[in-house]
Design goal:
alpha+beta, 3 domains, 4 helices, 33% strand, binds zinc ion
Length: 226
Amino acid sequence: MKTYEITCYEDGVTDLTEAEDIAAACAHAENWARDGDWGEEGTVVRCSVTEIMPLKLTYRLGEAVVGVHTCGGLDTLEERSKWDARMMDDDASHPAPDGWTGEWAEAMWDAFSFSSDVADVEDIQVEIEPDHATLMQAAGASEDCEHKWSTEGEGGLKENPGVWSTGGTGLIFESHCTRCGLRRKERSPGIQNNHDEHDTVEYRMPDEDELRDMIECGMVEEQTQD
Ligand SMILES: [Zn+2]
């Protein structure tokens, strides 16, 4: 098992995980990102996944190596933060390093080094789906309707009703529920999307006049009283 640090670029929150390899760590990072509270609109969350390599600390006095300390996994992070603190405080008489069992000279070392091999790093992008149920409810849609989506009568291309181009690779997909008339507009930036663009969705409940028109042109089924 290796240790990986996940950092979310969106909010700077980090998490640690142990995994077999970076692919497994990325899969974990994706689930972790989805668990976050990103609001109901949906978004794209970017994270970096970095393998934490074992750390080797070498202590020298003059030319002589007086100590070597290695640590791996989660200990590495703890050790690193202690060492950062020690480096800031370079006048103090330094305590012996953790794990050091030899006699620790009062004198300061001339140099110490952190060394580690190149770590596996990967950036991932996680598309967070909008919270459709909440958005539909906010638009005033009935919770009881089992929405049945159709693009019939939405305009756009004849062979592809309900689809509109927004230039470039961007597309808008319009559809409606044939049962209650709820209208849905999905925007996709397409394959050229940059980091800030992601699929979005809007729901809108038609007013009475619009609903009557939709029923008249066959987009919405006539409501039967039961
Ligand atoms: Zn419906």
